[in-house]
Amino acid sequence: MAGRASTSPQADARRLPRAGDWVRATLHFHLTGPFPVTAEIVDIYGATLPASVDIQMIAAEYNLTEAHSTHAELEAGALDPDILSHVRRGEREDLRQLPFITIDGETARDFDDAIHVEQNGSGFILWVAIADVSHYVSEGGAIDREARARGTSVYFPERAFHMLPRALSENLCSLRPNEPRLALVARIEIDRSGKRSSSTLLEAVIESRRRATYNEIQEEWESRKPEWPLLRHFELFQLLRKARTSRGSIDFDLPEAEILVQPDGEVTSIFQRPRMDAHRLIEEFMIAANEAVTAWIMEREWPFIFRIHEEPSETSLQGFQSLAATVGVRFTLEQAGTQRIMADIIRRLEGHPAQDLLNMAFLRSMKQAVYSAAHSGHYGLASRAYTHFTSPIRRYPDLVVHRLLRNALRVEKKKAPPLKRDALEKLQDKLDETAEHCSYRERLAADAEREAVRLKQVRAMHARLGDDFTGKIIGFSKGGMFIQVENPFSEGMVRAESIVDDIYEFDEERMIFRGRRKKRAFKIGQTLRVRALKADLETRQVDFGLI
Prior knowledge:
Blueprint: E1 2-4, E2 22-29, E3 37-46, H1 54-61, H2 70-77, H3 85-88, E4 93-94, E5 101-104, E6 113-120, E7 123-131, H4 133-136, H5 142-150, E8 154-155, E9 160-161, H6 166-172, E10 180-191, E11 196-207, E12 210-213, H7 214-222, H8 231-246, E13 257-261, E14 267-272, H9 277-299, E15 306-308, H10 314-326, H11 333-336, H12 339-348, H13 355-365, E16 370-372, H14 396-412, H15 421-462, E17 468-477, E18 480-486, E19 489-495, E20 504-507, E21 512-515, E22 521-523, E23 527-536, E24 541-546
Parallel strand pairs: 4-11, 5-12, 19-24
Antiparallel strand pairs: 1-2, 2-3, 6-7, 7-10, 8-9, 10-11, 13-14, 15-16, 17-18, 17-23, 18-19, 20-21, 21-22, 23-24
Helix pairs in contact: 1-15, 2-5, 8-9, 10-13
């Protein structure tokens, strides 16, 4: 872990730390002796923490490991790369004739989902191919044990801590263009109203024809020609989106930071990640696939891992109702109990000065989505049954879902005997434990990623101390106002005591920051000119001052 040295031995400064130095230390815990905990200093960084150790600091805080064990690496290196033999032996459907494409970000290195859309007489056929990690990762093996322990990949600005060794995530299980790959494929028939009419699950070999990026596809969509081959993809996307909206699915459009860094970890730029129709298309197709495979396995009454999201409590909705009313958005608790009305309220917030604040407040009012071996609906998506099927490269629950789907397929095709009652009960208990563990690991990874982003934002602002910015008020507390600036895309606080023309107080009922004497008031969404005063790497906080 990284931290500040608190003692300063008078010795060689090149070897021993001084007070205020940043150091990396290993903690030792003792059952006996004068000190229950001692620290062994491993590295001394000096008074300034270099950006190159940011990732180590966050990893140490959350006990995350980047490297895979020798056993897992050896196991991955020994995997059979012969893909086409599965077709020759008749073990897999040969779908290489279908023009699948992958659509990802510019910097993506693993491609775990590919799509293709066809039109038929009644509507569309959506093909979603997901890299078949379950074929390579045997349950109980070295790779599997590590993958389960990690639960998920963790994505930092510098690089990712992958759940699987790179031999899998960036090679055998990456749907790279013009290379045959094993995949689990959902074939989904969708009618002209956007409703799923049937779905089929296939163990297959596919070959992606193109590695496309979101920006490329967005540009092609905006300048589309009648003969553009992806035109039907967007037609289906719009149908699915309309159908999901009509059933009450809630679409949060929360701002996210896109961070570019140099090899040494220093920030090059931070900007708000654009959310384009190209992103939404992939999201919509993945949701459709997740719902289709869930319905498929539920028809067979097979044990499963679901992705569930419970309804918010009345108490939490009351809190959101009160906050919304302060900025002029009003609804009754009776309306709040109707999901479609709440979804419509969230949609109507688009462009509202308090949109980000209210979206985040409503998100916090809801319970977290989790994994569960017990079936339940997904409130946010207004889905009766849902799972995570589309990313077994980076999420362990998806890998388990793939195994369950393949086992059910084999039983159905009489390639494997059906499970007996005691085996089913043991499997159910195991899935309960796996779901709970993976939910915990997911929350841990999300916290680590959020802290890494915050650290880089503070670094970017540290380089701009004294500079002036146009900022937007995005929230209040008793201590001051929270300000968001666009470039670098980051947040900070104007502290109440730093505003010297009056004594300011937070009026929570009216959601404003008001001066006692002059009655000057600051409101959500208001733009201000601010100056960067302080960027503290230790607390990961930025202080602004009003100009």
